[in-house]
Specification:
With 191 residues, the protein is an alpha+beta fold. Helix content is 17%, strand content 38%. It folds into two domains: 8-80, Elongation Factor Tu (Ef-tu), domain 3; 100-183, Elongation Factor Tu (Ef-tu), domain 3 (Beta Barrel), CATH 2.40.30. The protein has four helices and twelve strands; from the N terminus they run ββαβββαββββββαβα. It is globular and about 55 Å long. It starts with 7 loop residues before the first strand and ends with a helix.
Protein backbone atom coordinates (compact mmCIF):
# COMPACT_ATOMS: atom_id res chain seq x y z
CA UNK A 1 0.00 0.00 0.00
CA UNK A 2 1.26 3.46 -0.92
CA UNK A 3 0.12 7.06 -0.34
CA UNK A 4 0.86 8.78 -3.65
CA UNK A 5 3.43 11.04 -2.01
CA UNK A 6 6.50 10.64 -4.22
CA UNK A 7 9.70 10.20 -2.20
CA UNK A 8 12.23 10.54 -4.96
CA UNK A 9 12.44 11.29 -8.65
CA UNK A 10 14.73 8.57 -9.95
CA UNK A 11 16.22 7.98 -13.39
CA UNK A 12 16.09 4.97 -15.67
CA UNK A 13 19.73 4.03 -16.26
CA UNK A 14 19.34 0.76 -18.17
CA UNK A 15 16.59 -1.17 -19.89
CA UNK A 16 16.55 -4.63 -21.42
CA UNK A 17 12.99 -5.58 -22.34
CA UNK A 18 11.07 -5.67 -19.08
CA UNK A 19 14.19 -5.41 -16.90
CA UNK A 20 14.60 -1.84 -15.68
CA UNK A 21 17.41 -0.34 -13.61
CA UNK A 22 16.85 2.89 -11.70
CA UNK A 23 19.28 5.36 -10.15
CA UNK A 24 17.61 6.32 -6.89
CA UNK A 25 19.92 6.81 -3.89
CA UNK A 26 17.15 7.46 -1.34
CA UNK A 27 14.87 4.59 -2.32
CA UNK A 28 17.76 2.14 -2.87
CA UNK A 29 19.35 2.94 0.52
CA UNK A 30 17.16 0.51 2.45
CA UNK A 31 15.76 -1.59 -0.41
CA UNK A 32 16.10 -5.35 -0.38
CA UNK A 33 15.35 -8.02 -2.95
CA UNK A 34 11.62 -8.79 -2.74
CA UNK A 35 10.58 -5.30 -1.59
CA UNK A 36 7.87 -3.38 -3.40
CA UNK A 37 8.52 0.06 -4.87
CA UNK A 38 6.01 2.10 -6.88
CA UNK A 39 7.39 3.38 -10.20
CA UNK A 40 5.11 6.02 -11.73
CA UNK A 41 2.40 4.53 -9.52
CA UNK A 42 2.99 0.93 -10.60
CA UNK A 43 4.08 -1.49 -7.88
CA UNK A 44 7.22 -3.40 -8.90
CA UNK A 45 9.30 -5.96 -6.98
CA UNK A 46 12.99 -5.30 -6.38
CA UNK A 47 15.05 -8.06 -8.06
CA UNK A 48 18.52 -6.60 -7.53
CA UNK A 49 19.94 -3.69 -5.57
CA UNK A 50 23.29 -1.91 -5.29
CA UNK A 51 24.86 1.35 -4.19
CA UNK A 52 22.36 4.00 -5.29
CA UNK A 53 20.44 1.78 -7.75
CA UNK A 54 17.87 -1.01 -7.91
CA UNK A 55 16.30 -3.20 -10.58
CA UNK A 56 12.92 -4.73 -11.26
CA UNK A 57 11.39 -6.78 -14.04
CA UNK A 58 8.04 -5.73 -15.46
CA UNK A 59 6.17 -8.64 -17.05
CA UNK A 60 4.27 -8.31 -20.33
CA UNK A 61 0.95 -7.75 -18.51
CA UNK A 62 2.44 -4.80 -16.63
CA UNK A 63 4.05 -3.32 -19.74
CA UNK A 64 0.75 -3.61 -21.64
CA UNK A 65 -1.35 -1.91 -18.91
CA UNK A 66 1.00 0.92 -17.87
CA UNK A 67 3.31 3.52 -19.37
CA UNK A 68 6.41 1.63 -18.20
CA UNK A 69 6.99 0.27 -21.71
CA UNK A 70 7.52 3.90 -22.82
CA UNK A 71 10.54 4.27 -20.51
CA UNK A 72 14.07 4.64 -21.87
CA UNK A 73 17.44 5.33 -20.24
CA UNK A 74 17.57 8.92 -19.01
CA UNK A 75 13.82 9.16 -18.29
CA UNK A 76 12.71 10.47 -14.90
CA UNK A 77 10.37 8.33 -12.82
CA UNK A 78 8.37 8.94 -9.65
CA UNK A 79 9.31 6.53 -6.85
CA UNK A 80 7.66 5.66 -3.56
CA UNK A 81 8.38 2.96 -1.03
CA UNK A 82 5.37 1.26 0.60
CA UNK A 83 3.60 2.78 3.57
CA UNK A 84 4.62 1.60 7.04
CA UNK A 85 1.82 1.24 9.58
CA UNK A 86 3.50 3.93 11.71
CA UNK A 87 3.66 6.48 8.81
CA UNK A 88 1.38 9.44 8.25
CA UNK A 89 -1.04 9.07 5.35
CA UNK A 90 -0.17 12.27 3.49
CA UNK A 91 -1.95 11.46 0.23
CA UNK A 92 -4.62 8.79 -0.09
CA UNK A 93 -4.67 4.98 -0.15
CA UNK A 94 -2.91 3.86 -3.32
CA UNK A 95 -2.44 0.21 -4.26
CA UNK A 96 0.13 0.62 -7.00
CA UNK A 97 -2.22 -1.24 -9.36
CA UNK A 98 -2.61 0.96 -12.41
CA UNK A 99 -6.21 1.08 -13.68
CA UNK A 100 -5.45 2.62 -17.08
CA UNK A 101 -3.16 4.92 -19.00
CA UNK A 102 -4.33 8.47 -19.71
CA UNK A 103 -2.97 11.16 -22.00
CA UNK A 104 -1.93 14.66 -21.00
CA UNK A 105 -3.95 17.28 -22.88
CA UNK A 106 -2.57 20.30 -21.01
CA UNK A 107 0.60 20.10 -18.87
CA UNK A 108 1.07 21.08 -15.22
CA UNK A 109 0.43 23.26 -13.34
CA UNK A 110 -3.13 23.25 -14.80
CA UNK A 111 -2.94 19.56 -15.68
CA UNK A 112 -5.68 18.13 -17.88
CA UNK A 113 -5.68 14.38 -18.52
CA UNK A 114 -7.80 12.51 -21.07
CA UNK A 115 -9.07 9.36 -19.39
CA UNK A 116 -10.46 6.08 -20.73
CA UNK A 117 -14.29 6.18 -20.52
CA UNK A 118 -14.52 3.25 -18.09
CA UNK A 119 -12.74 5.27 -15.37
CA UNK A 120 -14.81 8.46 -15.65
CA UNK A 121 -17.44 7.26 -13.15
CA UNK A 122 -14.74 7.27 -10.43
CA UNK A 123 -13.59 10.84 -11.14
CA UNK A 124 -15.38 13.29 -8.83
CA UNK A 125 -14.76 16.90 -7.86
CA UNK A 126 -12.46 17.06 -4.80
CA UNK A 127 -11.85 13.31 -5.12
CA UNK A 128 -8.43 11.70 -5.16
CA UNK A 129 -6.72 10.28 -8.23
CA UNK A 130 -3.18 9.03 -8.75
CA UNK A 131 -1.33 10.31 -11.82
CA UNK A 132 2.05 8.64 -12.42
CA UNK A 133 2.19 7.81 -8.72
CA UNK A 134 1.26 11.31 -7.47
CA UNK A 135 -1.78 11.68 -5.23
CA UNK A 136 -3.76 14.59 -6.65
CA UNK A 137 -7.15 16.20 -6.02
CA UNK A 138 -9.57 16.51 -8.90
CA UNK A 139 -10.46 20.17 -9.51
CA UNK A 140 -12.92 19.46 -12.29
CA UNK A 141 -14.26 16.29 -13.88
CA UNK A 142 -14.50 16.69 -17.67
CA UNK A 143 -16.55 14.74 -20.24
CA UNK A 144 -13.41 12.89 -21.36
CA UNK A 145 -11.06 13.28 -18.37
CA UNK A 146 -10.25 15.60 -15.51
CA UNK A 147 -8.36 18.72 -14.43
CA UNK A 148 -6.05 18.93 -11.41
CA UNK A 149 -3.98 21.81 -10.09
CA UNK A 150 -0.36 20.78 -9.55
CA UNK A 151 1.47 22.92 -6.99
CA UNK A 152 4.99 24.22 -7.85
CA UNK A 153 6.65 21.90 -5.29
CA UNK A 154 5.09 18.82 -6.95
CA UNK A 155 6.20 20.08 -10.38
CA UNK A 156 9.77 20.36 -9.06
CA UNK A 157 10.09 17.04 -7.22
CA UNK A 158 8.15 14.75 -9.59
CA UNK A 159 8.16 14.04 -13.29
CA UNK A 160 4.81 15.80 -13.71
CA UNK A 161 6.66 19.09 -14.15
CA UNK A 162 8.52 17.59 -17.12
CA UNK A 163 5.55 16.06 -18.95
CA UNK A 164 3.89 17.67 -21.95
CA UNK A 165 0.80 17.34 -24.10
CA UNK A 166 0.57 13.86 -25.59
CA UNK A 167 2.59 12.16 -22.84
CA UNK A 168 1.03 9.03 -21.37
CA UNK A 169 0.49 8.79 -17.61
CA UNK A 170 -0.51 5.93 -15.32
CA UNK A 171 -3.85 6.40 -13.56
CA UNK A 172 -5.20 4.75 -10.43
CA UNK A 173 -8.64 5.72 -9.20
CA UNK A 174 -9.76 5.58 -5.58
CA UNK A 175 -9.94 1.93 -4.47
CA UNK A 176 -12.67 2.76 -1.94
CA UNK A 177 -14.92 3.95 -4.78
CA UNK A 178 -14.33 0.69 -6.67
CA UNK A 179 -15.17 -1.45 -3.63
CA UNK A 180 -18.25 0.66 -2.86
CA UNK A 181 -19.50 0.26 -6.42
CA UNK A 182 -18.97 -3.50 -6.25
CA UNK A 183 -20.76 -3.84 -2.90
CA UNK A 184 -23.68 -1.67 -3.96
CA UNK A 185 -23.99 -3.61 -7.19
CA UNK A 186 -24.11 -6.90 -5.28
CA UNK A 187 -26.76 -5.47 -2.93
CA UNK A 188 -28.87 -4.30 -5.89
CA UNK A 189 -28.66 -7.74 -7.50
CA UNK A 190 -29.86 -9.44 -4.30
CA UNK A 191 -32.75 -6.99 -3.94
Amino acid sequence: MFTGIVEEMGTVTDRDGGRLRFRAPLVAADAAVGDSIAVNGCCLTVTSVGDGWWEATAVEETLARTNLDDLAPGDAVNLERPLRLSDRLGGHLVQGHVDAVGEIVSPAPDLVVRTPPELLRYVVEKGSITVDGCSLTVVEPLPDGFRVAVIPHTCEVTSLGRKGAGDRVNLEVDVIAKYTERLLGASAERA
